[in-house]
Design brief:
By secondary structure, the protein is mostly beta strands. The protein has 3 helices and 11 strands. An 11-stranded mixed β-sheet has the order 1-2-3-4-5-6-7-8-9-10-11. The longest helix is centred in the first third of the chain and has 8 residues.
C-alpha cells in the first residue's frame, strides 16, 4: 500500500501496512509529477495513509479508487482516524473548481481530527484547496462542545470554511445556521449566524 500511496500522494513507504490490488498504468516522466499520467482501478484493503492532509494518519482504509485523465474517483472508502470510523466518497479533479467534491459520514467523530495538520505554514496544497461537499456525524464533539445529528453543507475555499444549512442537536436543544471559519497559520477566526433553541448557555459557549 505504501508504494502506491507514494505515487498518488507523495507520502508513505513500502513498510506501511495494508494491501492495494488492481491495475495501474503509469505514463510520462518519473521525475516530474506534472508530466505524468496515471490511469487504473485499485482496491484498498486495510491501507494506511500517512498524514499529507490531516493531523493524524488515516488507518484501516478500504474501498476503491478509479484513476483517469481527469483525476481520481473515491468510491465507498471506509477508514479510521484516531480510532473514529468514517465513510467517504468523492471526486478529485485538479483542473476543476472545486477540485474536490465529497460526502463524509461518521457514527462518532471528534472534528478536530478532520482539520488539516497544525503546522500548515508550508502546506501549499491547503492554500489552493477548493472543495465542496456534505458532512453527517451522528455523535461528535469539538473541544468542549458536544453534539448529535450534525448535518451541514461544507465549502472550503483557500482556508475559508463555509458551513451552510448547518443543523445539530446539543444538550437537549438545537443549533441551526451558517458560519465561516478562517484557518490561517497565524491563528483562526470565525463568524457565525446561529439560531439556537433550548441549548444551555454554558454548553453553547464551549
Amino acid at each position: 500500500a505504501g508504494a502506491v500511496s507514494r505515487i498518488l500522494f507523495s507520502v508513505g513507504s513500502p513498510q506501511d501496512p495494508g494491501t492495494i490490488r488492481g491495475s495501474i498504468r503509469y505514463q510520462g516522466s518519473l521525475a516530474s509529477a506534472g508530466e505524468r499520467e496515471l490511469t487504473g482501478s485499485l482496491e484498498l484493503i486495510g491501507a494506511q495513509l500517512s498524514r499529507p492532509f490531516l493531523r493524524q494518519p488515516i488507518r484501516e482504509l478500504s474501498g476503491k479508487i478509479i484513476l483517469d485523465k481527469r483525476g481520481i474517483d473515491f468510491q465507498a472508502l471506509r477508514g479510521r482516524v484516531s480510532g473514529y470510523a468514517f465513510d467517504f466518497s468523492g471526486q478529485w479533479r485538479p483542473a476543476g473548481k472545486p477540485q474536490l467534491t465529497f460526502s463524509l459520514t461518521s457514527a462518532e467523530m471528534d472534528i478536530a481530527h478532520l482539520l488539516p495538520e497544525a503546522d500548515t505554514e508550508t502546506v501549499d496544497w491547503y492554500d489552493r484547496l477548493q472543495a465542496k461537499g456534505k458532512i453527517a456525524i451522528n455523535m461528535g464533539k469539538y473541544e468542549g462542545f458536544e453534539f448529535s445529528n450534525l448535518r451541514s453543507d461544507l465549502t472550503i475555499d483557500r482556508r475559508h470554511w463555509h458551513l451552510d444549512n448547518f443543523s445539530a442537536r446539543s444538550h437537549g436543544g438545537s443549533v441551526l445556521g451558517d458560519g465561516v471559519i478562517v484557518d490561517l497559520p497565524v491563528g483562526s477566526s470565525f463568524s457565525v449566524q446561529p439560531r439556537i433553541q433550548g441549548v444551555p448557555m454554558q454548553g453553547f459557549l464551549k
